[in-house]
Design the sequence.
């Protein structure tokens, strides 16, 4: 449900506020492979609850990228893939679960069963389309820039805005900044900048945050990027499309760490005429795929139909059970079906 159109959103906010007030054990959960918006939102909730005086824990299904390891509260994150017993116990004992930046329980992978079996009240805060029915209260709005922005509105609606301090603001700003590519897309709503202005009033240093996120990579990551652009970047001008593929052996060659390929999928879009971009990353049992697009070309629908994925119109992800060669063959053979759409989007 889009809370921007929900006539009962005031009641929902009141209900959520009451649950937070009454809860004695709260667990905050972002999605698997958390990006800046997911872990920033989750840590924003965690830090606010801590200031509010609540007993809270934050459980991530797996590790988050090293370039986000400076976020306030990151030392309190329990990594379920490395501490399954503790994660399961905390989820089982919780009386309130607050889940951020995912719309389907499959997005939390290894802890999905524990969450679904939990008797705790469940609050979902997310900006992806078509959330599945697995939470008791859903705050979903696809028109906002990020879950972090929606979370700020959640704090306002529940009367917790006064607890947004420097640490909370730093986490939320990081989520908004990363999910908009430093405000280069999905950030045309004036309200986004009103929220950013409110966060800046908490004394955060936006320039330092930008540097910590985007100028904090390893030399191996930069070498991997250079290799991909030089050796693995394919341009298909007849379809206004570009893509990059990376094998497991290539990842090992450059000492790959989680988060090292963050943002790679955006590079093809900087080439003149390219409006659809993809990156294919080989994993042990599948190929992970990310898509980006410009204009009206629906990357999410393309991903949902052909790569078991979904997301936003211009930013989506998916997966492929074929090997890399088969996955790339599937992708390139699909493009002629979309040639007209890709050409029409070119001029937007």
Sequence:
């Amino acid at each position: 449900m889009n809370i921007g159109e929900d006539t009962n959103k005031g009641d929902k906010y009141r209900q959520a506020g009451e649950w937070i007030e009454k809860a004695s054990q709260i667990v905050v959960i972002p999605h698997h492979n958390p990006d800046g918006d997911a872990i920033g939102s989750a840590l924003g909730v965690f830090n606010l609850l801590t200031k509010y005086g609540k007993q809270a824990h934050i459980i991530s299904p797996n590790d988050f990228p090293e370039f986000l390891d400076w976020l306030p509260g990151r030392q309190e994150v329990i990594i379920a893939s490395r501490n399954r017993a503790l994660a399961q116990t905390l989820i089982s004992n919780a009386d309130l679960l607050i889940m951020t930046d995912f719309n389907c329980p499959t997005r939390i992978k290894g802890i999905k069963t524990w969450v679904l079996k939990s008797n705790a009240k469940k609050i979902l805060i997310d900006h992806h389309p078509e959330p599945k029915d697995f939470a008791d209260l859903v705050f979903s709005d696809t028109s906002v820039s990020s879950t972090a922005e929606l979370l700020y509105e959640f704090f306002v609606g529940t009367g917790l805005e006064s607890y947004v301090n420097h640490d909370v603001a730093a986490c939320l700003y990081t989520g908004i900044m990363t999910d908009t590519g430093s405000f280069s897309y999905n950030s045309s709503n004036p309200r986004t900048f009103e929220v950013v202005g409110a966060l800046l009033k908490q004394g955060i240093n936006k320039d330092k945050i930008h540097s910590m996120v985007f100028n904090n990579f390893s030399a191996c990551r930069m070498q991997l990027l250079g290799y991909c652009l030089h050796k693995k970047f394919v341009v298909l001008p007849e379809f206004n499309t570009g893509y990059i593929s990376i094998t497991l052996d290539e990842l090992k060659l450059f000492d790959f760490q989680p988060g090292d390929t963050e943002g790679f999928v955006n590079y093809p879009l900087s080439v003149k005429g390219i409006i659809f971009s993809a990156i294919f990353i080989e994993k042990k049992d599948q190929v992970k795929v990310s898509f980006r697009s410009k204009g009206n070309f629906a990357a999410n629908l393309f991903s949902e139909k052909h790569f078991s994925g979904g997301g936003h119109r211009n930013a989506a992800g998916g997966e492929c059970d074929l090997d890399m060669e088969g996955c790339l063959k599937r992708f390139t053979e699909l493009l002629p079906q979309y040639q007209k759409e890709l050409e029409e989007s070119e001029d937007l």
Q: What stands out?
A: The chain has two domains: 3-214, 219-346.
